[in-house]
Every structure is written in structure tokens, then in C-alpha cells.
Amino acid sequence: MASIPLLRLSLRPTATVTTATHHRDQCRNSPILFRPLKSATTALFPVIAMKSKTPRKPRIVAMSSSSTTPATDRLIASVGYFLPFLNGLRYGRFLFAQYPKLYVLFEPLLPLLSLYKSVPYGSFVPFFALYLGVVRNPSFSPYVRFNAMQALVLDVLLVVPSVFQQIFTPGQAGLGFKVMVMIHNVVFLSAVACFLYSWVSTILGRTPYLPFIADAARRQL
């Protein structure tokens, strides 16, 4: 009878070990526990794992337009802006008289300006040649046609101050003369700034957008 309790005591650790081993095997066979961290995260958060596995779209870097615009288109587009520039030089006579050093900067262009004025109807022939030969010519690219039309719109706007001057005919002194001088100076500086910006942009193959003028040019195409 004394051997029965000893037998029971000897069996208890074995049962405990067996139970612990069985529990450990169940944990190992669990679909989540005792897995690698990445697999457990995938099982617990399938939506996040799906988003992380989604391949990222390659980033598209916009190329500069100078690499795609042909050199001939750049040259033709830049030449068109000389028309409003030459017509805008006449508004700088007051600045030239006030600042002689400024006149020296534009002195190399005087032969070109003299040749331009010596041609009969010198302002109309280049205008219609640029409009009919370039803007309305579908053989040219949209880049060239847009810049040609923008140059023509700018040239038309430069005629407006001279028309008002002929209508009101201000004298050589007084408030009207001061207003005329101020308008001439503003128009001249604006014409030079537009020319430099547009000319450099077209040489680099970029599209110059002059405020309000670009919208008007686009509507005419």
C-alpha cells in the first residue's frame, strides 16, 4: 500500500512535463505565434501588408523643353520678337535724351533700325509676312506659331500709345507733356523687358508667357 502514493508522486512530474510539451507544440503550430515578425504582421494586418507590397510607380522627371525644341524652331521664334522690339525703340527718345549712356547700349542697333524704316510700309510688310507666312502656315510647329502670334499681339499693343498721342497732341510743356513722357518711358521699358524675356526664352527652347498677351495669342490660333 505504501508503493501506491510513491507511484502517484513519481507520475506527477511526468504529467506536468507532458502537458507543457503539448502546450508548446500547440503554440508552435499556431498560425500567428512563433512566426517571423514579417509573417505575423502580414497575418494580423493584411491591408497594411498589401499596401507595402504594392510596387511604387516610377517618378517621372519632366524634361526641359530646350531638349525637345528643334534649333530651327527656336531661331524662327526668336526672330519674330524683333518686330515689336524695333517698333518700341521710338518710345525711348526721352530716356535717351536724359541718359546718354543708355543710348550707347542701343547704338549698335541703329543700322538695323534705319534699314527697317527705309523699307516702304516697313511696319506692315513684316507684320503681314509674319502673320500669313508663319501664324497661318500649318507647316510650322505650334511652338513657332504661338510665339509669332504673341509677337504680333505685342506689336499691336505698342501702336496704341502713338495713336493716343496723335489724337490728343500734347504740347511741349505742361501736364499733358509730362504724362506723355512718362507713358513713353513706361512703354519703352516694358517693350525692352518683354523682348529680352521672350528672346532668351525662345533661344533656350522655352515658351515665354507674357501676361494677357499670351492668352490673346492663344485665342487667335
Brief description of this entry?
Involved in protein precursor import into chloroplasts. By secondary structure, the chain is mostly helical. It is built from 12 helices and no strands.
Task: Name the descriptors.
mainly alpha; 12 helices; membrane; globular; 221 residues
Produce the secondary structure layout.
Blueprint: H1 3-28, H2 37-44, H3 46-53, H4 71-80, H5 82-88, H6 93-98, H7 100-106, H8 110-118, H9 124-135, H10 142-168, H11 175-203, H12 213-219
Helix pairs in contact: 2-3, 4-10, 4-11, 5-10, 5-11, 9-10, 10-11, 10-12
How would you describe the overall organization of this protein?
With 221 residues, the chain is mostly helical. The chain has a domain at 71-220. Helices cover 71% and strands 0% of the residues. It is built from twelve helices and no strands. It has helices spanning 3-28, 37-44, 46-53, 71-80, 82-88, 93-98, 100-106, 110-118, 124-135, 142-168, 175-203, 213-219. Helix 10 (142-168) runs antiparallel to helix 11. The chain is globular, with a radius of gyration of 41 Å. The N and C termini lie far apart (116 Å). Mean pLDDT is 76; it is low at 1-20, 30-55 and 57-65.
